[in-house]
Amino acid sequence: MESLDLITGTLAAYGAKFVVIGNYGAQLHGVPVYTEDADMAYQRSRENHQRMMAALEDLGARIRIGGGETVRLPTHDPVLLERGEIWNLTTRHGDLDLLYNPAGGGYEHLLPDAERVTVRGYPVLVASLDDIITSKEIANRDKDRRSLPELRRFRNDLYGS
What we know:
By secondary structure, this protein is an alpha+beta fold. It has helices spanning 2-13, 22-29, 46-58, 107-110, 129-139, 142-159; strands at 18-21, 37-42, 62-66, 69-72, 86-91, 94-99, 115-119, 122-126. Helix 2 runs antiparallel to helix 5 and helix 5 (129-139) packs antiparallel against helix 6. The protein is globular.
């Protein structure tokens, strides 16, 4: 998780607006689930794209194109983030998936129930456990179905429902 914290802390240091989702978000809540990457829903605005691209440049981000191959992310063009829904990136600290509209709703949808945590000294927004669970239920991928029992158990233990 430390490598994912480095990615998250760097984005936060640049003032990027995002909400951590997926299993990394669940880990930040304390749920003992496995993940290999950080998933984030990001705010779409020119200013945020500029901040994100500056952070991604700092992280040495590259676009994952499959088969272990990557291509350079043109970080000089913040408008690029407006053109895609999902950005599968790799950085010197690990993999990062940026999603404009993940299953269950994007940044604006997640914002009201997001919780603030501290990652590497920076405040970071994390989707609520309920929103993470809902997203995984809607996505309904094998890896999501595998983590759902632990997410639900943790939520039920935490909130008693």
